[in-house]
Amino acid sequence: MSPTQSNGASPSTAVNPASTLNAARSQGREGSSNLGTFQVKSGLAQMLKVKYVFLVGGVIMDVVNAEQARIAEEAGACAVMALERVPADIRSEGGVARMSDPQLIKEIVAAVTIPVMAKVRIGHFVEAQILQAIGVDYIDESEVLTPADEQHHINKHNFKVPFVCGARNLGEALRRISEGAAFIRTKGEAGTGNVVEAVRHERAVMSDIRRASAMNDEELYAFAKEIQAPFHLLKETARLKRLPVSGDPAKRARAIVQAVSKFQKHAQVTHYNNPKILAEISENLGPAMVGLTMSVKSGRHEGRFTEQPRLYDVILCNPTPSELLPTPKQQSFESNFYKNGVMFKKKSAEGEAKIALRQFIEQSPQSQYRFDSERGADHSEICRSLEENV
Amino acid sequence: MGRQGVTIGVLALQGAFAEHINILTRLKISHLAITPLLVKTPDDLQRCDALIIPGGESTTIALLAKLAGLLEPLKGFVKEKPVWGTCAGAILLSEDVQGAKKGGQDLLGGINVSLERNGWGSQVESFEAPLAVHGLRDPDTPFNGVFIRAPVILELKTDPSRPPIDILARISPPLLPAVGSGSVSGSENGDLLDDDRTVVALRQGRLLITTFHPELTRDDRFHDFFVRNCVYGG
């Protein structure tokens, strides 16, 4: 018996279509009554939250109106992201970036058959409620928009609609998942067309997952504390060797990275491991996508929303020359600081930290202080423990 | 009977192909050696004895298939070999689709049904429902159907030249969501027992469609069914 020759049709019913349908229907009726019994017996909930999404291998395209959404659908997008302005414009024009106009989103939803995604400001649960009410398929709680809440993200468990959130490292990804995110993307430098940030974040997440997967429970407890992640989620991540969300985050991230990098190269996502096809589809694509250049200052990207800035925090600032008045103890590094009257960025960490600490304490000498840092940060942040003291 | 080998491809252009591969890799059928294969090019397709078209976006999958030069080979494959479509795959295997994108979309055809895309509403209206499925191993245990932006089967058509349609599962009317064209008014539940719109899994010859996603559960009985019945005609 060969698999290609087999045919499930039973010969007796194959010739008479009417009897076939009737037979099929009576069979179906039987099935339904069984179902009814089962349903009464089990009394299961009828509607459950289904937070699985189908974006693997696809491209999500940014669109600002229904017409663009139709173009994206024709071009094979697996979803569209409804935006008021594209990220490049948001970044260059500044101001407060909000959720898109609900009317615009409704028009886009009506225009296409593929899922529609929309962004809300971080922590802005009211925007999310509005989007859920108008029938958006996925919500992106996005750092591209102006954050509405510096400390708290949306409690995404309260929503039926799946959320995607950005993460730069494993701790951040697991915190978002514990808040109810259904899937995780990298935090790229939106609108720049530069994928280096996104690659860095994905590498960081995957590297931490590989480390965690080799740890025993004791080490996982310590690691969970270190990356500020819920232990049970970290343990599940270590067991699965991937994030405990639907699908394969690496593939998805790859898709999204590709999506932001070029509009029409969606085939890249499918054939990422086939260089021959990639060469063909990369030909004659025209000028590169318009992008902004990341502005870099002292090794940190300006204007990037840091995940959990605490109110009243002082994040190390660049000291001005007048604040770097020489004291005997600082002589050793000071010579490195100035060369031809120009302040050098590469400084002794000790000296910079001391200066920042002094400045910080001078602002509010009565406060209690603590030092805090993200994993792998190049320096600690000084924080006031109790804001009432400020 | 010796151990037979069978290569089952999963169309890996977009969507939930990894989940299908995972289940196929786990699946144990005593006398069969199953080799799962990701299908992205016509060459991959040629190596397959059977194919699964996963859930995803039917428009995206169709367009990518066209770009990969797979559309015509797939149409040929559907005519000759066993194919199973889940959700978006079911749309591609249908002869007629309502609610297609403007200007229509490419289908592979093969099963004489008319489907409506997203017939039960958007992502927010997605749902799960226990299903009694004919012919599965361990038939007393219901199969958990996961419906996500699922298509609704509007009508089963009769075609004397084609194998008969065999209904495998219906969704119980009280479990139906109250939205979309799959919605039903509660008082008419009795009339809906043989309404085509309640059909969620069916088989026509070697072709199988499910409007839900068996690959998203840990239950491998539908994959087992496909291999035993559609691939090996058991």
UniProtKB/TrEMBL annotation, chain A:
<dbReference type="GO" id="GO:0008615">
    <property type="term" value="P:pyridoxine biosynthetic process"/>
</dbReference>
<dbReference type="InterPro" id="IPR011060">
    <property type="entry name" value="RibuloseP-bd_barrel"/>
</dbReference>
<keyword id="KW-0704">Schiff base</keyword>
<protein>
    <recommendedName>
        <fullName>pyridoxal 5'-phosphate synthase (glutamine hydrolyzing)</fullName>
        <ecNumber>4.3.3.6</ecNumber>
    </recommendedName>
</protein>
<dbReference type="GO" id="GO:0036381">
    <property type="term" value="F:pyridoxal 5'-phosphate synthase (glutamine hydrolysing) activity"/>
</dbReference>
<feature type="region of interest" description="Disordered">
    <location>
        <begin position="1"/>
        <end position="32"/>
    </location>
</feature>
<keyword id="KW-0663">Pyridoxal phosphate</keyword>
<comment type="pathway">
    <text>Cofactor biosynthesis; pyridoxal 5'-phosphate biosynthesis.</text>
</comment>
<dbReference type="InterPro" id="IPR013785">
    <property type="entry name" value="Aldolase_TIM"/>
</dbReference>
<comment type="similarity">
    <text>Belongs to the PdxS/SNZ family.</text>
</comment>
<keyword id="KW-0456">Lyase</keyword>
<dbReference type="InterPro" id="IPR033755">
    <property type="entry name" value="PdxS/SNZ_N"/>
</dbReference>
<dbReference type="InterPro" id="IPR001852">
    <property type="entry name" value="PdxS/SNZ"/>
</dbReference>
<dbReference type="GO" id="GO:0042823">
    <property type="term" value="P:pyridoxal phosphate biosynthetic process"/>
</dbReference>
<dbReference type="GO" id="GO:0006520">
    <property type="term" value="P:amino acid metabolic process"/>
</dbReference>
<feature type="domain" description="PdxS/SNZ N-terminal">
    <location>
        <begin position="38"/>
        <end position="245"/>
    </location>
</feature>
<dbReference type="Pfam" id="PF01680">
    <property type="entry name" value="SOR_SNZ"/>
</dbReference>
UniProtKB/TrEMBL annotation, chain B:
<feature type="active site" description="Charge relay system">
    <location>
        <position position="213"/>
    </location>
</feature>
<keyword id="KW-0315">Glutamine amidotransferase</keyword>
<keyword id="KW-0378">Hydrolase</keyword>
<dbReference type="GO" id="GO:0016829">
    <property type="term" value="F:lyase activity"/>
</dbReference>
<dbReference type="GO" id="GO:0008614">
    <property type="term" value="P:pyridoxine metabolic process"/>
</dbReference>
<dbReference type="GO" id="GO:0004359">
    <property type="term" value="F:glutaminase activity"/>
</dbReference>
<dbReference type="Pfam" id="PF01174">
    <property type="entry name" value="SNO"/>
</dbReference>
<feature type="binding site">
    <location>
        <position position="117"/>
    </location>
    <ligand>
        <name>L-glutamine</name>
    </ligand>
</feature>
<dbReference type="InterPro" id="IPR029062">
    <property type="entry name" value="Class_I_gatase-like"/>
</dbReference>
<keyword id="KW-0456">Lyase</keyword>
<comment type="similarity">
    <text>Belongs to the glutaminase PdxT/SNO family.</text>
</comment>
<feature type="binding site">
    <location>
        <begin position="148"/>
        <end position="149"/>
    </location>
    <ligand>
        <name>L-glutamine</name>
    </ligand>
</feature>
<dbReference type="InterPro" id="IPR002161">
    <property type="entry name" value="PdxT/SNO"/>
</dbReference>
<dbReference type="GO" id="GO:1903600">
    <property type="term" value="C:glutaminase complex"/>
</dbReference>
<feature type="active site" description="Nucleophile">
    <location>
        <position position="87"/>
    </location>
</feature>
<feature type="binding site">
    <location>
        <begin position="56"/>
        <end position="58"/>
    </location>
    <ligand>
        <name>L-glutamine</name>
    </ligand>
</feature>
<dbReference type="InterPro" id="IPR021196">
    <property type="entry name" value="PdxT/SNO_CS"/>
</dbReference>
<feature type="active site" description="Charge relay system">
    <location>
        <position position="215"/>
    </location>
</feature>
<dbReference type="GO" id="GO:0005829">
    <property type="term" value="C:cytosol"/>
</dbReference>
<protein>
    <recommendedName>
        <fullName>glutaminase</fullName>
        <ecNumber>3.5.1.2</ecNumber>
    </recommendedName>
</protein>
<dbReference type="GO" id="GO:0042823">
    <property type="term" value="P:pyridoxal phosphate biosynthetic process"/>
</dbReference>
